Amino acid sequence: MKKIEAFIRHEAFDPIRAELLDRGTPSLSILEVKGSGRQRGEVERYRGSALMIGVRPKLKLEIVVEDGEKDLVVETILRHARSGEAGDGKIFVLPVEEAIRIRTGEGGEKVLQAREEPEIPA
Fold first, then answer.
1. Which end of the chain has the least Cβ crowding within 10 Å, N or C?
2. Distance between CA 56 and CA 7 in Å, rounded?
C-alpha cells in the first residue's frame, strides 16, 4: 500500500476529486494548510502598508491506495494541479505498512476498498 500526500492549490481540488471518484478512488482526506517553498511569499497591502506574506494557503490531500493504483492517482493529481507556475505544489509517495478498519478490526488492503452502499427500499 502507498500513501500519497499532495500539496495543491485550492482551485485544483474539484477536478482532482471528480476524476478520482469517476475512477473508483473515493477515499481521501483534505486538510487546509499553509506553507512556503520556491514560490515564497507575496506582498499584500493593508491600510496603506505593504506586508510580506511568507506562507501561502494550500490543500493537503492524503490518499492511501493499493500499490497498483498509485500511478493512476499521481497522474490524476499532476494533470489537474500543474499550471507550470511556481507554487503548483508537491506530491510525496510513502509506503504504508499496515491499515486497520477500526469498526471491525479487519486489516490489509481490503480496508481500502469502497464499501458497497445498501439498497434503499422504495
1. C
2. 11
Write the pLDDT tens digit of every residue in 34-58. Answer: 887 766 666 677 777 877 777 788 9
Please report the sign of the dihedral spanned by the C-alpha atoms of residue 113, residue 22, residue 77, residue 43.
Answer: negative
* Number of domains the chain is built from: 1
Give pTM, 2 decimals: 0.78
Residue 112 burial (C-beta neighbours within 10 Å; 0-12, 13-18, 19+): middle
Rounded Cα gap, residues 11 and 22, in angstroms: 19
Q: Which of 33-37, 62-66, 76-80, 105-109 has the lowest mean pLDDT?
A: 33-37
**Cell for 41?**
511569499
Whether residue 44 is contained in a domain is answered as yes
Coil, helix or strand for 4? strand
Q: Which of 34, 52, 38, 49 is nearest to 87 (CA)?
A: 38
Does 79 fall in a domain? yes
